[in-house]
């Protein structure tokens, strides 16, 4: 027996309702044909998907797995239909964009404004989130694209770099007066504030690699996340290594001291999409960001 869409539809609705009468009504069937579809699907799968009593219908563990998988498939189908509708329109549509907070001070934000100017009929839904949350948001179709730090992602997510900038040492102005540039050795003369690895694995590994390449092993006084890290620097707790652009948000108190040539390292910002997402709006959006963010490889 072949697996058909009617089997999956019957299972999906019954898994939601857990009641044959209500599920049959939603499918415009009577309960006997619904029961037949479920029995056929269980024969195809080779396992029981529901437990049935006179009082209740429940998913088996195998049924729960099938329900979760089907939920993801149907989410993707909805995204596909949305992409087809958007691609058929010369203007208009909606783009949901995941935005890492540290992108707000980069030239990429200017490119967002340019896109908005060029495509005023496209609704941009900006959703601030940490980069580590974005892959799941893409796969669940909560967002169409993500502006994120390039942390590890699965092969079905495509990353395209749109911005690079140097890492600098964030210091209070009075401390920064001592330096033109700063070396790894000089950084170790100060209390250092580190990134929380679960929240900012990209920056954490980038800084760790920088010190490792210089043959140094720093001791950190505290771990935190941006923008709280900058607040800690302002409070005199220590210094921190941050993307140069973010200093602009605190330049009345802080200075970004460049790292010297032996220590310098670049931070990247990337735009991510699902490999299966061929939405014309997404492709056009990525092209605009690459053109107007000023990025040159």
Helicity range: 40-55%
The total of helices stands at 11
**CATH superfamily caption of the largest domain:** Periplasmic binding protein-like II
SSE-based structural type: alpha/beta
Give the overall average pLDDT: 88
- In terms of per-residue confidence, which ranges show pLDDT below 50 for 5 or more consecutive residues? none
Number of strands: 11
CATH architecture of the largest domain: 3-Layer(aba) Sandwich
- How many structurally independent domains? 3
β-strand percent reads 15-25%
How does this model look, in words?
With 297 residues, this protein is α/β, with parallel strands linked by helices. It has 3 domains: 5-84, Winged helix-like DNA-binding domain superfamily/Winged helix DNA-binding domain (Arc Repressor Mutant, subunit A); 92-162 and 269-292, D-Maltodextrin-Binding Protein, domain 2, CATH 3.40.190.10; 164-267, 3-Layer(aba) Sandwich (D-Maltodextrin-Binding Protein, domain 2), CATH 3.40.190.10. It has helices spanning 5-17, 20-26, 31-45, 61-87, 108-118, 131-139, 173-176, 184-187, 201-213, 228-234, 280-292, and strands at residues 50-52, 57-59, 93-99, 122-128, 145-148, 157-172, 192-195, 220-224, 240-243, 254-258, 266-274. The strands form 3 sheets. Strands 3, 4, 5, 6, 9, 10 and 11 form a 7-stranded mixed β-sheet that branches. A two-stranded antiparallel ribbon has the order 1-2. Helix 1 (5-17) crosses helix 3, helix 1 (5-17) crosses helix 4 and helix 5 crosses helix 11 (280-292). The radius of gyration is 26 Å and the shape is elongated. The mean pLDDT is 88.
């Amino acid at each position: 027996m072949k697996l058909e869409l009617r089997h999956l539809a019957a299972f999906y609705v019954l898994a939601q309702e857990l009641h044959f009468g209500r599920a049959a009504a939603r499918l415009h069937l009577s309960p006997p044909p619904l029961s037949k579809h479920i029995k056929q699907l269980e024969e195809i799968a080779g396992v029981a998907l529901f437990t049935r009593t006179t009082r209740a219908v429940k998913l088996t563990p195998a049924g729960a797995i099938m329900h979760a998988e089907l939920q993801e498939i149907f989410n993707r189908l909805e995204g596909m239909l949305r992409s087809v509708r958007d691609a058929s329109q010369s203007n208009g549509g909606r783009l949901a964009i995941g935005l890492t907070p540290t992108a707000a001070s980069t030239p990429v934000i200017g490119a967002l404004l340019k896109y908005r100017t060029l495509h005023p009929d496209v609704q941009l839904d900006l959703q601030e989130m940490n980069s580590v949350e974005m892959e799941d948001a893409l796969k669940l179709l909560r967002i169409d694209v993500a502006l994120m730090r390039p942390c590890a992602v699965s092969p079905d997510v495509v990353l395209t770099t749109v911005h690079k900038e140097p890492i600098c040492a964030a210091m209070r102005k009075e401390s920064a007066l001592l330096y033109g540039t700063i070396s790894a050795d000089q950084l170790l003369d100060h209390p250092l504030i580190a990134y929380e690895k679960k929240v900012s694995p990209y920056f954490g590994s980038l800084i760790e690699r920088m010190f490792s390449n210089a043959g140094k092993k720093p001791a950190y006084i505290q771990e935190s996340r941006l923008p709280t890290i900058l607040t800690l620097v302002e409070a005199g707790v220590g210094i921190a290594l941050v993307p140069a652009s973010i200093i602009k948000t605190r330049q009345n108190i802080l200075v970004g001291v460049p790292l010297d040539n032996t220590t310098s390292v670049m931070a990247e910002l990337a735009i991510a999409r699902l490999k299966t997402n061929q939405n014309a709006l997404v492709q056009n959006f990525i092209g605009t960001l690459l053109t107007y963010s000023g990025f040159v490889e």
